[in-house]
Amino acid sequence: MIERHRSFGPQQQDLPEARPPVRAEVDPASRRTFTAFSAVVLGAGVLASLLTSSWLTFDYGAELLLIGPLLAVGFLLAEQLTIDVDVKRVGWTISFTEIPLILGLLTAPFEVVLAANLLAGIGAQVGRRAASHVVYNAGVFCLEIAIPFAVAHAVNDALFGTAPAWFGPVLGTLTSPLISCGFALAALHVLGGAMRVSAAARLGVRTLAVGLLNTSVGLIGYEVASSTMWGWLLVALVAVAVIGLYRAYSGLLREQRDLEALSDVSLSVARSGQSAAQRPSESALDDPEMSVDEWEPVAERIREQLNASRVVLRLRLDPNAEVSTLVAGASLPEPAAAAASTALRDDSLLQLPGSHVRSFKILEAPEEVRRSLRRRGAYEALVVPLRGASQLLGAVEAHDRVSRWRGFGRADVRLLHTLASHLATAMDNRRLLARLRHDAYHDPLTGLLNRTGLRELAAEELRTGRTAMVVRIDLEVLTTVSEALGYTWGDRLVVAAGQRMRAELGDAVPLARLEANSFAVLAAGDTEQEAQELAHRLRELVAEPYPLDRIVVEADGVAGYASSAPADGERESDVDGLLQRADVAVRAARNGEDGVRGYTPAMRQVFLRRFQLVTQFRQALDTGQVEVHYQPKVALPGRQVVGAEALVRWSHPEYGRLDPDEFVPLVEATGLVDALTFFVLECALTKVRGWMDRGLRMSVAVNLSVHNLADETFPDRVAEALRRHDVPPQLLTLELTESSVMADPERSLPLLRRMHAMGVVLAVDDFGTGYSSLAYLRQLPVDEVKIDKSFVLGMGTDLADMAVVRSIVELGHSLDLLVVAEGVEDDASREQLIEMGCDVAQGYLITRPLSESRLEAWLRARTRSCREADSETVLTLLH
Length: 879
Fold this sequence. Notes:
Keywords: Membrane, Transmembrane, Transmembrane helix. The chain is an alpha+beta fold. 52% of the residues lie in helices and 19% in strands.
């Protein structure tokens, strides 16, 4: 027959069952109504049994001693051998109860069949630990036997001699599933979960169809066994084949449902938390992980698939927080609920050394485990850890299988193990995504927002039409501190300034570190007067002395603010434009008395200066204002000078020494970077040729721009320059950043492969600040990787930076790449790099970038020549 098995949904409770359990939400009033209804059903069942027994005669025979137990076993097997089918969100159970029933109608008295059905049915309910509704079930069991017997004998008596003897039992058998289905629908109605008439009618038709099939199978088996020699053997063989087919079909259904469960769980984990990650709030930028409540569908889906009374998820969503506990199904008893946040290893069930599913049964477990099971109110539990790459992330517990009396099986263990693996991988991936998202929007030194993070928040304010105020604060004298004490001290000063401002503003106000010593505050909705007051307050705050260890560093600060409110009659709706206004205000504040300025339209003169720089750059190249300086690179640990990096400098006759960060971006934006690159390349190759003429084999590195990688003729022009200067391509290194390659990889990668095939050395500059992935690095035809100086500078104070440097060194060597460390400023850093196996060092410990003449003097004063076997000369540092 087909009966309603369960309905999927959160916080469902067990209901009485005709054979399988019906699940729905039940309130106390409905339970009381159902108790009365159960009493009525039991009374009707007992009355129908008494009437049927008094009507039908009891024919005793010795064969009943065999038939009775066989019928009981048949009913019990029919209870056990069921097929569970999920149709949309409703589960149905197909059983074979009609087969032993028709055999009982044909071979045994009413009392024997009734006793066999009651014994098997109630015994199965007790075995399932679902005997709390035994009154209702007992009544239905009695009606399922009494009415079919009455119908069968009434039909045979009415059609005596005109119909086969089996006709009455067949009709009587068909009434049994209809009775069971009808009372199940009535119970569902009493409990407030009635089906629509059309759905109930379809259920009745399906129940009748399956009942007719089972009845026919039972009747045919009986006729073959009773009328054919050795027919019982033939029936037994067919039964074995049918059972085998059932087992195979049931296994396929289970596999299909398990795969659906895995898919549902994976989709739930993938989709949950996306809305939080997409919200442009600082908290969403910080932590887009799933909350505990978002794991509820996952826990409920696991419980449904395992058909468990309860599933408990213990999750450590935050490595620094306590364990969070989520329960799907029946609530945990008070003692277990009170200890829900206990450490994962403080419970005997959760002492999980491996990653396999462990099964506990109260009758077989040690006393300590029994106590844990009793505390949970469970007699059986499956427990599996959620183990990530480096730590225990949580655990999953499944308590007490409710739909079958035999408990959890191997298929359940296998499914739970696979689900746990998926969940652990999902949690690991979410933590990785959270870390990557945090790193994408936050400054690695201070932990504050970076420019990208601030742009995200400011863009949302501008989209909503609200007025956004940006206050920018620059910490002054940072360069002086770095030159005197090293960049590590300068970084400590930046961190201290950021902490001061964060404490002053609170966590609700977005604060970002834009560049080395520049900070910005997004004061959304504030007036210009409030922004001015905030700028003065923050400027005074960062200008206070900084006690660092045993010294006190004097500092100063300048602040500028800008509003998206209309300026020159036009509202600023672009994030970059707003940040640019604040940048202009800061530059103007450096010339003011109090160090604070707000943006005004008159400050557009700054853009005029930038325009002048762009238009004068070509002339500066021709008149010698632009020079190339060189910063030597030294091999580790032998300290041989292996080359130098070519760096551009511009001494403007009006503006003085210009920082490359000021004019190089302008040159790139206006398309003059090609001329700049080849100017530096020509100077570098001339220098290499001069060294070669003196017997020195030293290479020079030249930085490339994203625009160079977009020029398909660039490799040919580099090859022509090498031929003209008669320089081997191995002595030229072209440095490129990850972002420049990934701006248009389809165009840049072929150019890089052509230059690599020429023999030019290619190096990835500032590695660790961009994509920095193994898959990305493997596809680039590079020979060197340069560790970004921010990590090298932080090695002495930050173990994370040291771990990053060590990882990059190991990654580079695993790919047969030369590893160069920038920003080496002290002996301790050099020794650490030597210990890590880094190949080349570059930084202020060796020397600052030097002009051509000063480089030659430095080489003569600080190096000695060593003649090698191939007659080449190698320069080695004297100290």
